[in-house]
Design a protein that fits this description.
Layout lengths: L5 E5 L2 E5 L5 H8 L6 E5 L5 H4 L2 H8 L2 E4 L10 H6 L12 E2 L6 E4 L2 E7 L8 E5 L4 E5 L2 E2 L2 E2 L9 H12 L7 E4 L5 E2 H7 L5
Length: 196
């Protein structure tokens, strides 16, 4: 699916953003010996972002954070099975963030958390203001935004959330999306036709 995952080193272990297929094996090869994967942050539960969530959780014993509890409705199981995609192995969300968890300290890093539905009902962006970057899943892409034709989608909600939570950030903030290349808030303010 060409889905991105991001590994971030903090002062108290590592955090992983999203768990697409193959990331558990990649982590086993990549993490330094003795390193601790402490947290898995899920931007939303669409199948391509959580295919390896159960494997990561089992192998590394990390805490899983997500907007909502695991749900086959959120993973789009019915639609995915029609496309020939195998079911997502069930995982446990240890920390259900909901829409009212504004800040957290994970892996020794200070995170700000924005609930931004529209692409998915459980869409979340994770900001590391001190490091100048935000992880947005499929909320925002270079020159585009996430599709809104899945169940629970809403273009109005999505654009409103982007304008409210993301566009006021420092223009130099790097944006790491669930697919495709990184961009910046400033670049999207200038060139993204959905936001202009």
């Amino acid at each position: 699916m060409g889905c991105n995952a991001y590994l971030i080193e903090g002062t108290d272990g590592y955090a992983l953003v999203d768990a697409p297929e193959g990331v558990a094996a990649w982590l086993a090869r990549t993490l330094p010996e003795g390193a601790r994967l402490a947290h898995l942050l899920i931007t939303h539960q669409h199948f391509d972002h959580v295919q390896d969530a159960a494997a990561v959780q089992e192998r590394f014993g990390c805490t899983v954070h997500a907007h909502s509890a695991y749900s086959t409705a959120l993973t789009l199981e019915e639609a995915a099975s029609g496309w020939g995609i195998p079911p997502v192995p069930a995982f446990r969300v240890d920390d259900v963030l909901g829409s009212s968890t504004p800040r957290a300290d994970w892996a020794g890093l200070e995170w700000e958390i924005f609930s931004i539905p529209g692409h998915a009902p459980d869409g979340v962006a994770y900001l590391l203001r001190g490091e100048g970057c935000v992880f947005v899943g499929d909320i925002l892409f270079a020159g585009s935004v996430g599709r809104t034709d899945f169940p629970g989608g809403s273009m109005a909600q999505l654009v409103r959330g982007i304008r409210t939570h993301l566009m006021p950030l420092d223009p130099h903030t790097e944006v790491f999306s669930g697919h495709g290349p990184s961009t910046s808030i400033g670049e999207e303010l200038l060139n993204n036709p959905y936001i202009a």
